[in-house]
Design a protein that fits this description.
Elements lengths: L1 H14 L5 H16 L1 E9 L6 E7 L10 E2 L4 H9 L3 E3 L11 H6 L6 E8 L2 E11 L10 H37 L3 E6 L4 E4 L1 H7 L9 H7 L15 E7 L7 E10 L5 E10 L1 H36 L5 H30 L9 E4 H15 L5 E5 L7 E4 L1 H17 L6 E9 L3 E8 L21 H4 L8 H11 L3 E7 L3 E9 L2
Parallel strand pairs: 13-15
Antiparallel strand pairs: 1-2, 1-6, 2-3, 4-5, 5-6, 7-8, 7-11, 9-10, 10-11, 12-14, 15-16, 16-18, 17-18
């Protein structure tokens, strides 16, 4: 009896010493045979998909043939043990109705008696161990059962740990493959910004695979990349910023930084994903240069055309000539407005937006904008209602550009409003450190799917929804650019068919 206890202790030490599944299964089989002194031992695992039992490892002559056999749920003595979660001793298998001779037929082995027990792990059965044909006595007895069950439970724990380790390794391999396959450069750092891991694209970016243990900031600067000061200090979980590279190569990069926090929200690591956007920047510059060039080239002949129209209108003209001239004037005015929008847009979307900031009352900006637009909307049946803004105070802003931003939003509210009576309401409120302006209209609203798109350049909601497509979709992107240049933000809430409300937040002076 003491020998078996020592054997179990020895088995436990051996079982916990390996996480290699194949090696572990072989050890389990060897020690299972020793614990009950069996002629042969088989291990059947449960297929979690089908519930079937299959022979994974067997010991004994012709044991490999057993691996091709799968037992259905409840089939055979092993299936009964698994289904009822009970151990079983069968003194003579030939007299037991649960016995299936499929394994003996396949292997040529002669089974006489069996001791069988489930392998349990946290109330879950992971498999079944069978001892076959007792050596030294006619059959297995109840004295063998406690030791066999104890060993089976030890084996189940060791097997689950090994399987968990194997699954973790598989997931790690998948993540590593994806990590190294990314075209973006990825750096993982500790909380102080020291590199702990990087992928192949990151190695290529810094021309070295030996940077682990170095400061990311130092490595990037040494490679000609200009980081923002205090780039690790930000409030949210993520931050996006641009990195300028070597000027002679016109390099630009986009960087997404993510904090990795522990359970107490303390920073453990940072993950930097750096993407080369040089080509996008070049393309954007070409577009902007093209728009600026075309706008200026169009403006010169337009000034001449628009300037001569009043002179020609003063001459004696036929009815047809008058109608033709009116049409020319109308279309020229539209073209002038379009060119002005394009010029304004190229100016606002330039790399550096120059702002002539000064302290200015919010009420002054709003009221003067409304006055200008009221004259413009004189014949469009639109009214602009402004609430009292005397308490809002001042903001530090470029007055002219802020008026441009408000104009863009209000003009959109009128232009895309299909109601006979168009109403725009402007109100303001104070928050802790900001001034909030609300511009609400009674128009068709904005579908939820369009909310993120309306601030994109040259984007317009479908004509079937808005009822018209005049303009080129520059107004709202322009307004957003100006407001964000003032460290502010713009958002929109809407209910289709009822209203749209643009919420502008600007820091107080």
């Amino acid at each position: 009896m003491d020998d078996k206890y020592l054997l179990l202790l020895d088995a436990n030490k051996i079982l916990v010493s390996t996480l290699d599944i194949k090696k572990l299964l072989t050890i389990i089989m060897e020690y299972a045979g020793k614990v009950v002194n069996a002629e042969a031992v088989s291990l059947l695992l449960i297929d979690e998909t089908t519930g079937e039992l299959y022979f994974d490892v067997t010991i004994g002559e012709k044991s490999d043939d057993l691996k091709t056999i799968r037992l259905k749920k409840g089939e055979g003595i092993a299936g009964w043990c698994a289904s009822y979660n009970r151990s079983l001793i069968v003194e003579d298998v030939a007299k037991d109705a649960r016995w299936t001779a499929r394994s003996d037929s396949s292997s040529g082995f002669k089974t006489k008696s069996i001791i069988c027990t489930p392998m349990r792990y946290k109330n879950k059965i992971v498999g079944v161990i069978e001892g076959i044909n007792s050596l030294g006595k006619e059959f297995f007895t109840e004295d063998d059962l406690p030791f066999f069950e104890a060993f089976a439970n030890q084996a189940a724990i060791a097997l689950e740990n090994a399987m968990l380790f194997a699954r973790l390794n598989q997931e790690k391999d998948k993540i590593t493959a994806a990590f190294n396959g990314m075209t973006e450069a990825v750096f993982v750092t500790d909380k102080s910004g020291v590199i702990t891991q990087l992928n192949k694209a990151a190695c290529n970016l810094v021309n070295s695979d030996r940077v682990v243990g170095n400061s990311l900031e130092k490595i990037l600067i040494n490679n000609g990349l200009q980081l923002h000061p205090n780039f690790l200090n930000f409030k949210d979980k993520t931050k996006v910023f641009e990195i300028a590279g070597r000027k002679e190569k016109q390099e630009y990069f986009n960087c997404l930084v993510t904090k990795i926090l522990d359970e107490e929200d303390i920073i453990n690591n940072y993950i930097f994903v750096i993407r080369d956007i040089s080509e996008e920047k070049k393309e954007e510059l070409l577009k902007r240069s093209f728009l600026s060039l075309i706008s200026h080239k169009l403006k010169t002949p337009l000034v001449t055309i628009v300037g001569y129209i009043p002179i020609i209108q003063g001459e004696k003209l036929s009815l047809t000539q008058k109608k033709g001239l009116e049409s020319i004037k109308k279309q020229s005015d539209k073209l002038v407005a379009l060119v002005e929008d394009l010029l304004k847009f190229t100016m606002v979307m330039s790399e550096t937006l120059e702002l002539g900031k000064s302290e200015v009352k919010v009420s002054k900006i709003v009221l003067e904008t409304v006055k200008l637009l009221s004259e413009k909307f004189n014949n469009s049946n639109a009214s602009i209602e402004v609430s009292d803004m005397s308490e809002l105070g001042k903001i530090f802003a470029d007055e002219s550009k802020m008026k441009d931003a408000l104009c863009c939003i209000i003009e959109n509210a009128v232009k895309f409003n299909k109601n006979e009576k168009k109403i725009i309401k402007i109100s303001g409120e104070l928050s802790d450190e900001n001034i909030i302006l609300n511009i609400e209209d009674n128009g068709v609203g904005i579908p939820l799917s369009e909310k993120d798109k309306i601030f994109e350049k040259f984007y317009q909601i479908e004509e079937s929804f808005t009822g018209q497509v005049e303009g080129v979709g520059l107004g709202l992107p322009l307004a957003k650019r100006i407001i964000e240049a003032h460290n502010g933000s713009i958002d929109v809430s809407s209910q289709t068919g009822k209203y749209s409300k643009f919420i502008i937040t600007i820091p107080k002076a």
